[in-house]
Specification:
The protein has about 270 residues and is mostly beta strands. It is built from 3 helices and 15 strands.
Length: about 270
C-alpha cells in the first residue's frame, strides 16, 4: 500500500503551490524537477519529473489537461524502477475535475486508475487496478469537494498564501486508487531557500504527516516549499522514507505568467 504513496505524496506536496481566487497558471505552462535520494553522505540524483498544462475541450466545455510524468534514471532502474503518468482533465471555470487517469509502475508494484466524475449524481465511476490480474469497477461518493491529485494542485494554486498565518491548518481531500483521503497541511511561514543548482528564492513552507507503511515511517513530516510570488510554484519537496529521503528540486520552467525571482548561486 505504501508504495503507491511515493510519487503521490510528492504530487500532493506540489499541490500546495497554491493558496482570494486568481488563476496563476495558463495553457502551455511547463516545469520540471530533479529527484534526489539522500541518506547520510549519499546525495544521488535518481530521476526526473515534469508537469504539463494545456487547454482542451472536454464534453464541449473549456477544460485544462494536466499531466504529471515521473521516471527514474537508467542507473536507478536497476534498483527500483519508477514510471508515473497522471492525467487530469478539470473545468477551466470552476476547476472541478472531470476525468482522471493514473498509470503507475514502482518497482514490482503497478496501478491503474480511470475516473469519470459525475457531479450531477455525486459519483465517481472508477476503474481501479492495484497490482491485480483484473480491474475492479466501483463508485466513489462525490458528497463533498473532492479532487484527484493533479486537479487538486491547480485548485490550490488559486489560494492566497499571503493571507495564511504560521501554524494555520489546511484540510484537503483527494481520491486515488479505491479510497478517499483527508489530509491536514500546516503552514510554517516564509523562508529564503537555496534551490539546488538554481539559486536562492523567497518561499513559503508547508508540511503534512506521511502515511505509515513499508516505505514510510509514521509521524514523519513531508516538507515542501513554494515560490513566494504570483506563480506559487513548488520549488523543493522532501519525502522521508524508512531509509533516507527523496528530495525534488525545481529544475526548469517555461511559459509562466510571472518571471520567478532567483538570486544566482555564487
Amino acid at each position: 500500500m505504501a508504495k503507491k504513496f511515493l510519487i503521490s505524496l510528492l504530487l500532493l506536496a506540489v499541490a500546495l503551490g497554491a493558496g482570494a481566487r486568481n488563476i496563476p497558471f495558463r495553457s502551455g505552462e511547463r516545469f520540471g524537477f530533479r529527484l534526489m535520494f539522500k541518506w547520510g553522505g549519499i546525495n544521488q540524483e535518481v530521476g526526473s519529473a515534469k508537469v504539463l498544462l494545456d487547454s482542451v475541450s472536454y464534453q464541449g466545455a473549456p477544460t485544462y489537461h494536466a499531466q504529471f510524468i515521473a521516471r527514474s534514471n537508467k542507473f536507478f532502474d536497476g534498483f527500483y524502477k519508477i514510471r508515473e503518468h497522471f492525467h487530469s482533465w478539470f473545468d477551466a471555470r470552476d476547476l472541478r475535475p472531470r476525468k482522471f487517469i493514473r498509470e503507475t509502475l514502482e518497482g514490482k508494484y503497478a496501478a491503474y486508475n480511470l475516473y469519470h466524475y459525475d457531479w450531477a449524481n455525486k459519483t465517481i465511476h472508477a476503474e481501479v487496478n492495484m497490482n491485480k490480474p483484473a480491474s475492479t469497477m466501483m463508485e466513489i461518493p462525490l458528497d463533498r469537494e473532492l479532487y484527484d491529485l493533479p486537479a487538486l494542485i491547480y485548485h490550490l494554486r488559486t489560494m492566497d498564501h499571503a493571507s495564511l498565518v504560521a501554524g494555520q491548518k489546511i484540510p484537503l481531500t483527494f481520491a486515488i486508487d479505491d479510497d478517499v483521503y483527508d489530509v491536514i497541511m500546516t503552514y510554517h511561514g516564509q523562508q529564503r531557500l537555496k534551490i539546488r543548482k538554481l539559486g536562492y528564492m523567497q518561499t513559503r513552507k508547508f508540511s503534512c504527516t506521511v502515511v505509515n507503511g513499508a516505505l514510510f515511517e509514521g509521524n514523519k513530516e513531508l516538507l515542501f516549499w513554494f515560490s513566494d510570488d504570483g506563480n506559487r510554484l513548488p520549488v523543493a519537496i522532501m519525502a522521508p522514507l524508512r531509509v533516507g529521503a527523496v528530495w525534488a528540486w525545481l529544475k526548469n520552467y517555461e511559459n509562466l505568467i510571472y518571471e520567478p525571482v532567483i538570486e544566482e548561486q555564487k
